[in-house]
């Protein structure tokens, strides 16, 4: 994929160079200057596109990458929180059952000691 992007970027760079050369020649000819200026603007856009193809996405958009990483960390934290809540509920149920059994045994023991 990287090789394809670099190949396309190099072709766009060549096209941009040719457009720039034609734009300069048209602009130098004063009669064709109104046509040459938009061609130069187009050449500039093509050069920009070629540059964007070469530079990786995290370098072009560092804030978006940080936001994506933050969202991933948040998702993992939410999943861990859900798991902890579930296991906490199970532990609470188990503890209440065992405490209930212990309480009933203690109640029976106290009842046996009383006359």
From TrEMBL:
Domain of life: Bacteria
Biased composition range(s): Basic and acidic residues: 105-115
Compositional bias annotation for Basic residues: 76-104
UniProt keyword annotations, A-Z: Membrane, Transmembrane, Transmembrane helix
The keyword Membrane appears for this protein: yes
Membrane spanning residue stretches: 12-43
Renumbered residue ranges of the record's region Disordered: 65-115
Protein name: Uncharacterized protein
Source organism per UniProt: Nocardioides ginsengisoli
């Amino acid at each position: 994929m990287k090789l394809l992007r670099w190949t396309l970027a190099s072709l766009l760079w060549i096209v941009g160079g040719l457009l720039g050369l034609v734009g300069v020649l048209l602009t130098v000819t004063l009669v064709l200057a109104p046509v040459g200026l938009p061609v130069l603007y187009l050449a500039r856009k093509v050069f920009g596109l070629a540059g964007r193809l070469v530079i990786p996405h995290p370098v072009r958009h560092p804030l978006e990458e940080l936001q994506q990483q933050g969202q991933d960390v948040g998702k993992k934290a939410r999943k861990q929180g859900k798991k902890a809540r579930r296991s906490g509920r199970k532990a609470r149920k188990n503890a209440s059952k065992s405490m209930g059994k212990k309480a009933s045994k203690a109640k029976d023991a106290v009842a046996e000691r009383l006359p």
